[in-house]
Amino acid sequence: MRSAGGGPFAALRSIPITLLTMAQTRLELLGNELLTEKNLALRQLALVLAMVACAGLGLLLAVVLALSLLWEQRVIVLSVLAVVFLAAAGGCYAALRQSSRTSAGVFASSLAELQEDLRQLKAASQHGQNPD
Questions:
Q1: Spatial separation of the C-alpha atoms in residues 88 and 129, rounded to whole Å
Q2: In 68-107, which residue ranges form alpha helices assigned H by DSSP?
Q3: What residues form the membrane-spanning segments (predicted)?
């Protein structure tokens, strides 16, 4: 006679389903991490482009300032604009450095989840070997 629970063979049949469910969860997590890393890379690229543009404009204005030292009021305007663009470039640079420092590493969450899965599997196998 068979029992209602299915016994050990039913448990063996559910292992592939469990493994596939775990794999699906891990792939979804991997996809999320890839999207996060892509967004971070695009943000950093935009900051680099803004920094280069601001630095270029700042340098251009600094050259114009040097050429126009003999003009009376225009010197003040050009010097203020040069300072503004160079400060903007410095702000972009600081944001880029901060963004680079806060990155946790590629696939950190996936690796942590896999390590937790391994820990649980090892604990389950040790528990199965030690009769209570």
A1: 64
A2: 74-101
A3: 45-69, 75-96
